[in-house]
Structure formats: C-alpha cells, structure tokens
Amino acid sequence: MKIVWTEEAKQTYLQTIEFILSKWTVDVAENFETEVNRILNFISQNPKLFIRSKKKRLHKAVISEQTSLIYKVIDQQIFLVTFVDNRSDHKF
Fold first, then answer.
1. So what's the pLDDT on residue 4?
2. What is the reported pLDDT for 87?
C-alpha cells in the first residue's frame, strides 16, 4: 500500500529527530530512523497490524519506548498522521 506523509507527520518526525540529536548521538538518531523505516515496511505490508483506536480510525505503532506513530488507512492508502511522545497526554 502507498504511504502518504501528512504535513503534521513530517513536522513531528523532524522535531523528534532534532530532539534526539540535542540529547543523544547521531547513532541514536540513525537507529530511530532505521526503526521508523522498519515499521513503515510492516505497515505497508499489513496496515491493520498495529493497535487500533476505539474512538477513531487511527492505528498506533510503537517506534520506541518514547515515541509512537499514529496513522490511518483510507481505501488503498496509509496516511501517517503524527509522531507522539508516549509520555505525553495525547488523544489516541
């Protein structure tokens, strides 16, 4: 399935990378990018693999202990909605 990055997903992804680089090393940021790509590969092959929200048509894929990806499936496309900090009070 085709993966579409929303503007919010692009922005929150870059913010997450910037945060990682400000606190840790380039290696940690590269590991995060690798994990995101691995998860995106899983999602493209099986979009319903990850937890689905009861309230909305959203899915949550845990990238790391600190970060998750929120996405939705519409027709034959997967829309990446946002990256969230798992420690925050997000609405998923």
1. 97
2. 85
